Amino acid sequence: MSMNLTKMTLSFKDLAGEQQAFAGGKGGSLAKLYQANFPVPDGFAILPAAFVDDALTPEAWSHIRSHLNRLRNTYGPITFAVRSSAMSEDSAHASFAGEFETVLNVKADDEIYEAIHRVYNSRLNERVKAYSLAKGLDIAHDIAVIVQQLVLAESSGVLFTANPINGQRDQAMISASWGLGEAIVSGLVNPDTLVVDKMTGRVLNRDTADKLVMTVCGRIGTEEEAVPDKLRRRPVLSDQEAAELVRLGQRIESLFGTPMDIEWTRANKQFAIVQARPITTLPEAEPPTPIEWKLPKGAYVGMRNNIVELMADPLTPLFGTLGLSSVNKSMGNLLMTFFDKPGIMPEELIITVNEYAYYNGSIKPWPMFKIILNSVGILKRMFRGAVERWTEFGRPAYVATIKRWQVQKWRQLPATEILKATRELSEATIDAYGALVSGVIPAAWMSEGLFTLAYKLIKKGEDPSAPTFLMGFDSLPIRAEKSLYDLAEWVRLYPVLATYLNGTPSARLAEELGNEQPPPGIETKNWREWQNRFQMHLQKYGHTIYNLDFANPVPADDPSPLLDTMKLFLSGQGVNPYSRQKTAILRREQATQTMLNRLKGLRLNLFRKSLAWAQRYAPLREDGLADVGLSYPLLRQMLRELGHRFVGAGMINEPDDVFWLKEDEIEQAVEKLDSKEALDDLSEIIPQRKSTWQAGKRISPPLMLPQIKFLGKNIEELKSGRSKRRDREGLKGVAASPGSVTAPACVVHGPEDFAQMKTGDVLVAPITTPAWTPLFARASAIVTDVGGPLSHGSIVAREYGIPAVLGTGTATKRIRDGQVITVNGSNGKVFW
């Protein structure tokens, strides 16, 4: 940049117009703020023309001394801050935050002279070069130097006039610490963090940190010292002070016309601004988090139970339309057969509120009276042939539908026919689930409950708990775990292969499953055999679902979580499932024999009958739940085939974007596709829908609607508040598996998070289905948002002998990843 200026130094008051550009980003913005009467400490800029051969010219130094004397005469004995202001610094594209040198607390002229040269020459350091290259900028920087009065700050920090996390422009975020701001910039301290509503000034969220270190002025320069104990956990800013700062930030934002990153200080109850630059990494604004939970017209009760427990997250657009249509159609037909009359239940059994599924319990008085009047007949129809409804009709019909489509050359079909096939498979899935949930699952729930009740009447103090009698059965999830263990044992026979598999990331191994050529050093026959064995495992067990929403991959799509579990066994860290099952069987048989030897007469008869009933249904329930997703590998392939065709037609960018479309949009698209018509470009709406889904996932949906309020607060919130006061901060849920464990939490939302879980962590999840079972081999305890004493998570936790607290409602939102928590599965409490 050419420097045809007679001026080599300019005060903030005089630095205007074209000359602001020559003072760099920081100098220009500070001068602009100073001239607009913002509280900016007075100072001046030393322009690049003041330097020749990396040193100040004598004339420039003379001007600088004049500026220093003016400031001393105006403000008395003061200390100075010397900062960089490069031409590319503090721009909308590159902040250079912390890359150049800053020197604080210099007083004498010789100290200031040295500081100016130190800051000016920092443009040559490796840190600046690396940042410049990363931003695609020239590494030969023109740089100005700013000298201004140093505020002897009692507190300082950073204000973003938009939320840098979620992009919300109506929120501001403040970081605050004691002392000078260098502790925050250099990362020496965890600052307080506040989120403030810009319209009202209300503090929306406050995280008060334990602030151990603060930066203070030394004799020359700065130094770090410990924060006094009385200030460590004290908030740096009150709500009123935070609101005042945000109002100041809004005025600065208005002046520059863009969201700003502002460095502030506070001394003698007054704020000062020492830097302001545009925010360079502000994401697109996310949709606001839902706060109102209004039931749709015609519904007056909504509950998060029954089939909804398999829909823990907000529904994706395609499942929320096509999938939910299948659910309502199938479940409606099923209930009509039990009630023997149409119109008893609402037409839409599953409704959505803020994209979350709710069971519609809105039954009118007269239909409810009919249900009560015919309850005996309804129960007879429900439980007559309960097992056979699944084993002889539901599952075989489901498998037949899947096989019929598997053998067809469906990829050659028109798009409209593939869409019809996906609907048929979706409905077949829910038909099968209906056969299961209308017979085996309630039978298992009732039989286990009755056995537990009967056992309480006859057990003695030293006798084992009731679940002992229902453990060790060879259910599908147990067989799947043993299959992975067997695979790991086979791999051990080939040390080179074992070393490679153990040392290679699972995501990469998943990509290599189709590679014909083995990795270097591994024999081809061993590699092929390993591939075949793992593929056989996927064919048998790769259909288990993490969530009923078919937008979520199943293990057959992404086997990385299964590979992680196999590697766990291969490294010797996992528990041998054969030994665990053998121990459970031995305990069950010994406990059973003890009771048979001790009991007589009616008590013996009660024990035998109730136990036989419970043991009949318990394994069937686990097998059935594991098979709900039998169609999902094929169903997802079909939907992704439509996605590929839509990508080719320019409708969406990625095949998986098909899951973010709605059923009617797909229906229109396949008709146009088959008619050779142009498709509408819907790629721009996909990110917005994903953002809406993410915003919904940040909240915990109420377990029941409408929300019951007392004194203006939800009952659930009041109960939560009482729980906090009584039990420290914590959660209350269902005591599902006894014992107590204190360990770090691993919050796992889905299979994409499986790899982050370490052996010994507490698994914190929205819900656990059979597909989550591989994580139980690593977990020391289980905590879920949804679930009860007879859900999959409680059964498997008892099999593993680890504590479980289920149905907490908000565990994944309130527990932080890595936080040490105590899980008491005996009383259903989690606290920290």
Walk me through what this model shows.
- 45% of the residues lie in helices and 16% in strands.
- Helix 13 packs antiparallel against helix 20 (601-627) and helix 13 packs antiparallel against helix 21 (632-648).
- The chain starts with 8 loop residues before the first strand and ends with a strand.
- It folds into 5 domains: 1-150, ATP-grasp fold, A domain (Dna Ligase, domain 1); 151-285, D-amino Acid Aminotransferase, Chain A, domain 1 (2-Layer Sandwich); 302-458 and 630-695, no CATH class; 466-598, no CATH class; 711-831, 3-Layer(bba) Sandwich (Glucose Oxidase, domain 1), CATH 3.50.30.10.
- It has an 8-stranded mixed beta sheet with strand order 22-29-28-24-25-26-27-23. Strands 11-10-9-8-14-15 form a 6-stranded antiparallel beta sheet.
- The protein is an alpha+beta fold.
- Mean pLDDT is 86; it is low at 1-5, 89-98, 134-140 and 718-727.
